[in-house]
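Duplicate of earlier report; Metal-dependent hydrolase input re-posted below.
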Amino acid sequence: MMPLRRDLRFALPADRACDWHRLGPHVTHFFNALSLLFPAGERFFMDSVRHYRDQITEPELKKQVLGFIGQEAMHTREHIEYNDLLEAAGLPAHLLDRRLTMFLDLNRKLLPASHQLAMTVALEHYTAMLAGLLLDDSSRIEGSVEGYAQMWTWHALEETEHKSVSYDVWNTVMKPGPVRYLIRTGTMLAVTVFFWLIVFDYHVRLLIRDRKRGHNLRGLWSVVKFLYGPKHGVFPGIAREWLRFFKPGFHPWDHDNRAHLARIDGLVAAVDAANAANPGALKKSRRGVRAAA
Ligand SMILES: [Fe+2]
Ligand SMILES: [Fe+2]
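Output:
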């Protein structure tokens, strides 16, 4: 699997930043909370992998690392602009981004490079699990505002495409044995606690700041169902994949969902066609971004 850097731009209607998901603002803000994690998070991922680049001699993995960094750089750029739209809509996007940056900078200072790479491996498993969920059941995003749905689908596809890169780097640069296993799985437990605490905190803050949109029991119920519903809920949906990470011989491609990747070319064509048909929408979305700057 060779990750390719795809330089795509998305027309995100600024006036729908708080309400672009088919299921309404509550679910929209769950995705928005995740978006707030990407710029700081993905910079951390790129740096922790870059640190070990010189120790990788296998040409195929070297190329995959380049592709991984290229893809995460594009995701970072697009999520910065997406988050600027949230800021322009009156949400504390920049403040929450700064907080996460501070938290991750603290991790850079306190933890050895190996533990930082273990954090990336664990969080890349999270992005792969959540991406897989989005791609397995298109009803989780379909029917939402086009630009936002395309951007999340693009991100999910590329997270799937590069899901094993940081893990393969980890296995290459760390000595095999129980210590490697314990660092990887212990880090996953710690990352799980912090990741969901931060997502929950950011989600609630966005909902509180956007309360003018009329928070009601129906909206709340829709997000509870979206996250915890036994059939399609996010948490039940990732439980098995999360547990698989603890198998000593785990590899991200044990769960072979590469069939989804056949959708990439169609998506790229659809994004290009949408931008060509309505270049004004892309410009307008950029103007919204500049307003927040
Ligand atoms: Fe990404
Ligand atoms: Fe990633």
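Residues 14-292 form a domain with the Ribonucleotide Reductase, subunit A fold (CATH 1.10.620).

Merging into the original ticket.
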